[in-house]
Amino acid sequence: MEVQDIKETKLAQNPVIGQMLINNHEQVVFCNDNATGLKAIIAIHNTVLGPSLGGTRMWNYNNEMEALNDVLRLSRGMTFKSSVAGLNLGGGKAVIIGDAKKLKSEALLRRFGKFIDSLGGKYITAEDVAMSSRDMEIIHMETDHVSGLPENMGGSGDPSPVTAYGVYVSMKASAKEIWGNDSLSGKKVLVQGIGHVGESLVEHLTKEGAKVFVNDISDERVKAAVTKYKAETVAADKMFDLDIDIYAPCALGASVNDDTLGKLKCKIICGAANNQLADEKKHGDMAKQKGILYAPDFVVNAGGIINVYYELEGYVRERAMAHAEKIYDTTWNLFQMAKAENITTNQAAIRLAEKRIESIAKINAVL
Ligand code: NAD
Fold first, then answer.
1. If you average pLDDT over every residue of the chain, what do you get?
2. In angstroms, what CA-CA distances link 33 with 16, 38, 110, 318?
3. Structural domain that includes position 39
4. Which of 197, 234, 310, 317 to mutate to test the pocket of ligand 1 (most atoms within 8 A of CB)?
């Protein structure tokens, strides 16, 4: 029997703890409540650096294994994101299974809040797909372990300006690596997705004198960017053929794939979207081979989690912004590490995250 087959057979026999073994997840909590229809999974990947923090996603998964795989994958990603951002947070995530439009109710969210509360602060939740800040307020009725609350409730409000600032400084560090100085003046940048983060990024880029191209599925968003920032619009079927210096994915994941990498002529990929590489290994390697510098998404877009972290400490936006500025140095350092070790930038970012966790774990063991 092939090694892969043995692994798959073992996993089939041990589909839950077996999955946890692969990436060393600490704890997975399955939540059920017949009265409200709540079915949820909370995954705590690693709490060496601090309590696990990550959003709750509500999604109509095809089956429970799909939900489990998603929550395990996303919680591990949160461990790396917080570690590399230098935060004292671990990685966690939660998924509620079901169609948010049909199933979401005050009772369901409050019941979910009680489950979070039962973990005593080991998992802190926040917004994610199909969850709003109003939903966070409802969960907060049952537990204090919620972040991303509105400003009028003492929360940190919209994280997007902090995220966009992090993307901007990371892009400058990338420019320094490629062109020897970090000015973006005159650089041709394609921003895909002119939403909360994308628009704020376009503002930074325009102020610095970059030539900005914009694309969005919403005509309204495109028109606003053209009017306000004198950006140039580009159609979806033409944007990857453009002669550009930098591609900033700020819409959805998986936009760095076989198709786009085959066309892209840029020197840098640096944007806010999560999970930009359709296949982490394959497309990280492909970008490197093509001489495109990929700034790893979870390093670049850490402004969001940084913002939420400062909410836990008593929110002051200046502190969050000052921390987000450090993304410049982190980006620069990981590029140097990738070169020295001849690995992809994504691998370097994961190594940086793991190194910090390993070193702090040693201190914890001493204490
Ligand atoms: P948003 O919903 O405000 O904006 C997304 C924009 O992308 C919208 O204008 C939408 O019309 C556009 N869009 C969607 N599909 C598209 C497509 N196929 N082509 C072109 N445009 C498309 O979201 P946001 O808060 O600006 O976040 C943008 C990305 O950054 C998301 O992937 C998000 O997960 C990630 N992110 C955001 C934050 C944050 O602080 N908001 C933090 C970390 C990561």
1. 95
2. 20, 5, 11, 42
3. 3-75+89-148
4. 197
Confidence of residue 195 (pLDDT cuts 50, 70, 90): very high
Q: Which atom of ligand 1 is nearest to the CA of 253?
A: 32
Residues 170, 291 share a domain: yes
Q: By C-alpha distance, which of 202, 354, 212 is closest to 272?
A: 202
67 within a domain of the structure (yes/no): yes
232-276: per-residue pLDDT in tens?
999 999 999 999 999 999 998 999 999 999 999 999 999 999 999
**Beta-carbon neighbour count of residue 18 at 10 Å?**
13
Q: Which residues form the catalytic set?
A: 93
Distance CA 313, CA 259 (A): 44
Counting atoms of ligand 1 from 1, which one is nearest the CA of 198?
A: 26
Asked if 242 contacts 190 with a C-beta cutoff of 8 angstroms, the reply is yes
108 and 237 in a single domain? The answer is: no
Dump pLDDT digits (tens) for 278-289: 999 999 999 999
| Ligand 1 atom at minimum distance from 194 CA | 9
Q: Is residue 82 part of a domain?
A: no
**Ligand 1 pocket member 301 (CB < 6 A):** yes
CA of 297 to the centre of ligand 1 (A): 13
Q: Whose CA is nearest to atom 8 of ligand 1?
A: 195
CATH code of the domain containing 46 = 3.40.50.10860
CATH assignment at residue 215: 3.40.50.720
Which pTM was predicted? 0.93
**Separation of CA 252 and ligand 1 centre (Å):** 6
